[in-house]
Automatic annotation (TrEMBL):
Location, primary (coarse class): membrane
InterPro entries: MetI-like (IPR000515), MetI-like_sf (IPR035906)
Classification lineage: Bacteria, Bacillati, Actinomycetota, Actinomycetes, Kitasatosporales
Domain ABC transmembrane type-1: 79-271
Membrane topology summary: Multi-pass membrane protein
Presence of keyword Glycoprotein: no
Gene3D superfamilies, A to Z: MetI-like
Transport recorded as keyword: yes
PANTHER family recorded: ABC TRANSPORTER PERMEASE PROTEIN MG189-RELATED-RELATED, ABC TRANSPORTER PERMEASE PROTEIN YESQ-RELATED
Organism the protein comes from: Streptomyces iakyrus
Keywords: Cell membrane, Membrane, Transmembrane, Transmembrane helix, Transport
The protein, known as: Carbohydrate ABC transporter permease
Recorded family membership: Belongs to the binding-protein-dependent transport system permease family.
Compartments, as annotated in UniProt: Cell membrane
Amino acid sequence: MTSTTLARKPVRWGRVALHVGCLAALLVMLYPLAWLLATSLKPADEVIASLDLLPSHLEWSNYKTALDGVNDVSIWRLLGNSLLIAGGAVAGNVISCSLAAYAFARLRFRFRGPLFAFMIATIMLPHHAVLIPQYIIFNQLGLVNTYWPLILPKFLATEAFFVFLIVQFMRGLPRELEEAARIDGCGPFRSFFQVVLPLTRPALITTAIFTFIWTWNDFFTQLIYLFDPDKFTLTLALRSFVDASSTSAFGPMFALSVIALLPIVLFFLAFQRFLVEGMASSGVKG
């Protein structure tokens, strides 16, 4: 076979069409982000009136106004409040859901099957159905207008989705490791912390990523429990920014939206390597 024949390989139009379709889908998914970035730099009269993606000139004062804060609360205070709530939620879900998952996946106790089925059934329960009873409980405990209603339930394994996720991962781990640890004198807690928990890292990182994103973007629950502007998060500050003046300041609001988006992107970039490694190794567990 000559070099000329090798050079004339047929064009695989199916592969070309696949790549073009993927690029088109990527542009569609990235357009809202590009629109957000462009709108955050638009003058006030172009945010609503103009349909152009690019602004006529860059209005950097939108970011200056956003960095000044909302309702006399600095943006650093808002950022700290958001990080406190999201960090507490991540710690609570990782600790409590992993313990509950270990009990359902590895331990033998009475009514384990019905209790696990009841827990799975709570996934279908709407969040708004339990919001009023939870509010009444926290109000009677004097915890309304504090961060506890947003963090404390996470330490009680109330997120059945993450419990189910970790249970399914633990069921794929070889039991011989725990049996060997039990022969060496390890009890259930020691086996959990020293044997099972390190192997469950991919599922725990997945839980942490989704918990952080969902908690950071949560608006309704934070609106119900937090009243004082000093306790507001960046999510609540976005809505307050519109009400801070007689005319809606959409430019600074979109600038604050970009700032609020950065921690989510950084958090995902920091842990995506572990997430990919977990997905790649989950198919080769013994």
